[in-house]
Amino acid sequence: MPQGCRPAGAEIARWDPDIRTVSRRAAPALAAAALAWPASARAMHLADGVLPPAQAVLWFCACAPFVAAAFAAWRRAGDDRLARPLIATAAALVLALSSVEIPLPLGTSAHACGVGLAAILLGARRAILAALAAVVLQAFLLGHGGVTAIGADLASMGIAGALAAHAAFRGLRAARLPLALAAAASALAASVATYALASLQLALALSAPGAFRTTLLGVAATYAPAELPMAALEAAATAAAVAFLARRRPDLAADLGLAPAGGP
Amino acid sequence: MSRDPRLRLALGLAALALVAAVPHPGPALAVAAVALASVGARGGRLGRLVLAPVLLGAVTASAAALAPRAAPDATARGLLVAARVLAGGAVGAWLCATLPLPALLCALAWARCPRPLVELLALAARQAASLSAAAASVRDAQRARLGYAGLGRAIDSAGQLAGAVTSRAMDRAAALADTVAVRGEPPVDALPPLAAGAAGGAALVSAIAIALVACALFGGGRPW
Fold it and tell me: Does the predicted interface ipTM exceed a cut of 0.85?
């Protein structure tokens, strides 16, 4: 490598004072510029054209093992009469919840994910399948999220969200946290994981060489004011929904493994 | 334009691949113009389709210009992003307008999309329609009882709405399982057959080949 050249990305990885200063100045400027444009947006999901082709393919590839495992779960579910309709119903729930958009700048919008609730009710693999169906239907039928961005959207909303919610719920229930509290924390974990990965994807897609940190700060500063309250609201609603199920339908809650047959 | 859903899907995917791969805004803007004309977008809808890409392009250009080592082609970068997003949105709108669910499922099944996914999409779409009706009825009842007056009551009502809809969804899932068991056929088998030997064959292969060649030639040519 010639003298003076550094490998690609080296300037991103290195935390030098110049970048820090410029980032501090630029991130609020970017956020303010973005907020000044009250764009009516299509999705928190990334739209077609946002991702460079290589990144779009990369996200599809990253999702492939998870989707393969989820399809295997679908095939195995053939023995369980109720399993496939349950997954489809969870997909419909995710589709409905994540289709209610609140417009945001940067060509995006905030919305509930619903994947946290699906992961709590059905587990991570089935929640990933539900999210896959929801993302595909949204892209092709509602124009909510891009077709070429299905991989990226599934990675953020489906995989990261479902895994985070599932792990949090299992861990918190094992720690004997009350059902509603565990559900709320799990939904919050799902939302935060989703938003964090979506921000990372957007920053990776839009940043110029050497400007990744600046772009990420700008995107995060733009997302956070709307997404974090939305995540808190979704967590509260998820807790209320799970508590409602445990209170009104203890049979169903027991079937889903949410609570012992005696109650929450 | 052929009504063959296979051709529409292939053309849409080819257009999206081309838009994503070509490193100049011109072809993307041309694709956007054709797609918008096909959809007949005008007025507020056209404004919504155009505004978000313009914003994204402006933010991209600003990020490039404000970077520690300002990119010399910041404006070109922003213009390219705006053109691609506009074209992507326009092609997406065209696909939404021309591929209703049954046609989409037929095309996906024909394209050898994994069978579990096609089955799942068919079931999920059916469930979504019935769930939205259930959710609307519960929400109307809650509104009538001032369930959304104030933040606390609204959150509580939203949770109860989600719980009630989930509960109904589970019941519907059981009913659906019974229906599938009685009828003895997975939904994907009930899709209407596609016309044999339709226009599609050669055009379809051509469209996919064009998109793939475009990706191979231009995709890695100029990172942005």
Answer: no
